[in-house]
């Protein structure tokens, strides 16, 4: 069964007397265990789409089916229960968390709110989550401000997987990291996907990042989806001028062998 189906989604903003069609009649699907790379120039509407999906922003029109349910009409207890299945990792983890919070409390929140494990087992579960993302258990006592950018992103991933989601939306989640740290985080994400059958909607302006993890790529330009296809096809034989421009912005993208994720969906 298709995990996520976005149908004819639209969102307009008006600012300073100007109307912007931030997301304009966008439809796309995501299968279980699949990574869809959502790429586009700055302002093309990627974050707006991700924010509507996470219900951080209401849509003007369109519908989203997630795990067979009409996602945008869920509310109250139904939404709270279902929310555990869709998580998000942001670029700016410090902005998303209280910087004075300890790593333990950042990981405890989703376990408590979604009642994932009984209270007596939470410390052990937090240690297991830290271990799974490659951090020692004693990091639990540190404040989120005291860890490096790469470690913070690992903690954000641990928090996202804590609720056993079927979908994680990653919004420029590795963009701020050094190249070597970035590739380790991408490896971790691919491992977790294979282990737990998680789908990723991976939002980035950087096709080099998306090439490493995506099964398919969707290209946005000024609010519209202008091209969707298998990762290799879009990179080696782009059909839209927007895709060609993004490929042209990454030197060696086409000449280097195209790797992509190790598993098929
Ligand atoms: N809250 C808002 N109020 C007014 N306009 C907005 C708002 N949020 C986004 N926009 C506009 O909507 C359009 C899409 O923005 P969005 O942030 O979704 O693009 P993006 O592709 O994620 O860009 P970036 O990669 O720079 O984050 C832009 O023209 C932006 O200026």
Automatic annotation (TrEMBL):
<dbReference type="GO" id="GO:0055085">
    <property type="term" value="P:transmembrane transport"/>
</dbReference>
<dbReference type="InterPro" id="IPR003593">
    <property type="entry name" value="AAA+_ATPase"/>
</dbReference>
<dbReference type="GO" id="GO:0016887">
    <property type="term" value="F:ATP hydrolysis activity"/>
</dbReference>
<keyword id="KW-0813">Transport</keyword>
<dbReference type="InterPro" id="IPR003439">
    <property type="entry name" value="ABC_transporter-like_ATP-bd"/>
</dbReference>
<dbReference type="Pfam" id="PF00005">
    <property type="entry name" value="ABC_tran"/>
</dbReference>
<dbReference type="InterPro" id="IPR017871">
    <property type="entry name" value="ABC_transporter-like_CS"/>
</dbReference>
<dbReference type="InterPro" id="IPR027417">
    <property type="entry name" value="P-loop_NTPase"/>
</dbReference>
<feature type="domain" description="ABC transporter">
    <location>
        <begin position="4"/>
        <end position="247"/>
    </location>
</feature>
<keyword id="KW-0067">ATP-binding</keyword>
<comment type="similarity">
    <text>Belongs to the ABC transporter superfamily.</text>
</comment>
<protein>
    <submittedName>
        <fullName>Glutathione import ATP-binding protein GsiA</fullName>
    </submittedName>
</protein>
<keyword id="KW-0547">Nucleotide-binding</keyword>
<dbReference type="InterPro" id="IPR050319">
    <property type="entry name" value="ABC_transp_ATP-bind"/>
</dbReference>
<dbReference type="GO" id="GO:0005524">
    <property type="term" value="F:ATP binding"/>
</dbReference>
């Amino acid at each position: 069964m298709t995990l996520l189906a976005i149908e004819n989604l639209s969102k307009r903003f008006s600012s300073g007397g100007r109307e912007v069609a931030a997301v304009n009649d966008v439809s796309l699907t995501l299968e279980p265990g699949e990574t869809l790379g959502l790429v586009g120039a700055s302002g093309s509407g990627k974050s707006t789409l991700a924010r509507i999906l996470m219900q951080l922003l209401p849509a003007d029109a369109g519908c989203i089916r997630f795990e067979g349910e009409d996602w945008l009409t869920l509310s109250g207890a139904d939404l709270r229960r279902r929310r555990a299945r869709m998580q998000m990792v942001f670029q700016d983890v410090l902005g998303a968390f209280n910087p004075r919070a300890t790593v333990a409390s950042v990981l405890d929140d989703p376990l408590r709110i979604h009642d994932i494990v009984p209270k007596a087992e939470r410390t052990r579960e937090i240690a297991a989550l830290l271990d799974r993302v490659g951090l020692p258990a004693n990091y639990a006592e540190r404040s989120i401000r005291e860890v490096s950018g790469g470690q913070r992103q690992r903690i954000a991933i641990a928090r996202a997987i804590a609720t056993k989601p079927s979908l994680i939306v990653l919004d420029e989640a590795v963009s701020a990291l050094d190249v070597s740290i970035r590739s380790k985080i991408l490896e971790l994400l691919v491992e977790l996907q294979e282990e737990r059958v998680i789908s990723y909607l991976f939002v980035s302006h950087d096709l080099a990042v998306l090439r490493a993890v995506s099964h398919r790529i969707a290209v946005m330009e000024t609010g519209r989806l202008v091209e969707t296809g298998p990762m290799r096809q879009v990179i080696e034989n782009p059909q839209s001028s927007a895709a060609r421009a993004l490929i042209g912005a990454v030197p060696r993208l086409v000449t280097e062998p195209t790797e992509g994720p190790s598993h098929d969906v």
